User: Which sequence fits this backbone?
């Protein structure tokens, strides 16, 4: 499988704080790569740095063999990277329909077909089509946020903590949706829920104090009790 | 009764003029988080250029179009040269836009001379209708109609078009809009130019209403517009309309019944709203 995205030794400062101090990993086409680590380790900042929202001060991000480290966020998104932020980023005063419409970059037949496909994947959204985003439940907001990132046929999806604050039954639905999306795209997932991460992840990258500690196959991590205890506090 | 109706029309007409100025201001603040104290200068330039174009062509339509184009060009220059370097810094925004407001006012004196200019009402809109004991001044009614049309057109754009959706989404979450592949800086520029065009239109309509235009008129109206933005809710277009009408009516009725309080009434109105609804009457954030 070819490498879709390569993050090489990135350092990111936010204000006076040196948040990322050497994060490196690769995301291969068609895989779910999971970023793991404790709270505050730098996982969310890594996704934001890839998106250009908190640009790297050094290091490189390569997507489809092109450097995107210094690119503007809208260019990065237009080039095929979809982003589902931790807070879902729903436009609360816009309806479900309008939230999706803002995201759609084309409005031709292919785009409409794509929309139908996405709505089949997230049937609840059809039910709440005219409901304002701010009035949706946490799970529905998560679905809408993922649908919005997925609606443009993105080559890569960055999904930040999709299970956060959701009931177990809703987490199950979110997982099913991610597994379905994986058939069509590559995913980088930040997830604190290790059970969920280990079920859908192909590879993992452990981040601690803003640095990559270890990367490898998810099946190896599942077996490695020492690593899980040391960096994830489980096991 | 006829007095009430006359005060009502007067207040509504003034309210619509303030609305045209405040509408751009509220969008600029709501979307771009920019405190633009130079906005009144664009209003004054609209007034002067409207008078100038009318004198040149004797066509009120050309005067209005000329004023709007002047506003668009000045809006482009202001955003590119003055606003872009100070995004995200309110203190710098206040200082540089206040400074630019003075530059705009002084430039009016350089271009059009230091004295105030007389502004004529076009013949078609001069005079009044008498309905029973009620006298309706044509030009004031015209301003009210134009204000409502502008409100309708902008509401349509904001609610029913893609660019309108993007602007509304941008008011709520700029970062997310960018992450969806939209160049928010370009949207900022368009919104700024549209706001400047509205301000210039307000100025051009104001000129025949007051009969004279003078360089400092921008600052006077900008203060009212800021009050309206605060009362209506930052970033809310309908909020601006309602607040502008309230301010216009309060000014009109107070000027007649309690003249001593006519200037203070707007501040009082703002204070009351801020006590009970600090976010303003409407909110655009989701």
Assistant:
């Amino acid at each position: 499988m070819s490498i879709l995205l390569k993050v090489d030794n990135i350092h990111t400062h936010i204000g006076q704080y040196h948040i990322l101090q050497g994060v490196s990993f690769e995301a291969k086409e068609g895989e779910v790569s999971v970023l793991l680590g404790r709270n505050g380790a730098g996982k969310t900042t890594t996704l934001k740095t890839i998106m250009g929202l908190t640009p790297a001060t050094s290091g490189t991000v390569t997507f489809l063999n092109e450097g995107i480290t210094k690119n503007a966020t809208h260019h990065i998104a237009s080039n095929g990277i979809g982003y589902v932020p931790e807070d879902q980023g729903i436009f609360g005063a816009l309806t479900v329909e309008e939230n999706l419409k803002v995201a759609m970059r084309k409005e031709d037949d292919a785009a409409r077909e794509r929309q139908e496909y996405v709505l089949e994947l997230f049937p609840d959204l059809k039910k709440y089509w005219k409901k304002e985003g701010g009035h949706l439940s946490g799970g529905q907001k998560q679905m809408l946020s993922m649908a919005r990132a997925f609606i443009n046929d993105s080559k890569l999806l960055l999904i930040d903590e999709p299970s956060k604050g959701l009931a177990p039954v809703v987490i199950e639905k979110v997982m099913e949706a991610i597994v379905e999306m994986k058939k069509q795209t590559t995913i980088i997932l930040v997830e604190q829920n290790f059970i969920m991460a280990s079920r859908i992840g192909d590879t993992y990258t452990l981040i601690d104090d803003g640095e990559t500690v270890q990367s490898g196959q998810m099946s190896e991590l599942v077996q490695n009790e020492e690593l899980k205890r040391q960096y994830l506090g489980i096991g | 009764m006829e007095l009430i109706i006359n005060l009502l029309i007067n207040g509504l007409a003034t309210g619509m003029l303030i609305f045209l100025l405040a509408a751009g201001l509220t969008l600029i603040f709501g979307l771009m988080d920019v405190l633009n104290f130079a906005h009144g200068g664009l209003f004054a330039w609209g007034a002067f250029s409207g008078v100038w174009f009318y004198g040149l062509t004797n066509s009120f339509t050309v005067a209005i179009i000329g004023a709007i184009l002047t506003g668009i060009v000045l809006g482009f220059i202001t955003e590119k040269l003055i606003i872009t370097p100070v995004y995200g810094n309110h203190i710098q925004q206040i200082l540089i836009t206040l400074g630019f407001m003075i530059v705009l006012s002084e430039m009016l004196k350089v271009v059009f001379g230091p004295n105030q200019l007389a502004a004529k009402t076009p013949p078609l809109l001069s005079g009044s209708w008498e309905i029973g004991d009620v006298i309706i001044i044509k030009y004031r009614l015209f301003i009210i109609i134009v204000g409502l049309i502008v409100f309708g057109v902008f509401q349509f754009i904001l609610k029913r078009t893609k660019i309108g959706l993007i602007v509304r989404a941008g008011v709520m979450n700029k970062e997310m809009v960018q992450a969806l592949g939209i160049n928010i800086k370009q949207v900022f520029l368009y919104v700024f130019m549209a706001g400047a065009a509205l301000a210039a239109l307000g100025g051009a309509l104001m000129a025949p209403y007051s009969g004279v235009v003078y360089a400092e008129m921008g600052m006077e109206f900008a203060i009212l517009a800021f009050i309206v933005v605060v009362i209506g809710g930052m970033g809310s277009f309908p909020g601006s309309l309602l607040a502008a009408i309230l301010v216009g009516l309060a000014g009109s009725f107070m000027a007649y019944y309690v003249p001593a309080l006519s200037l203070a009434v707007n501040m009082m109105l703002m204070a009351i709203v801020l006590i009970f609804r600090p976010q303003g009457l409407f909110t655009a954030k989701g």
User: Anything to note?
Assistant: Chain A has one domain: 3-232. The radius of gyration of chain A is 17 Å. Residues 15 and 197 of chain A are 31 Å apart (CA to CA). The mean pLDDT of chain A is 93.
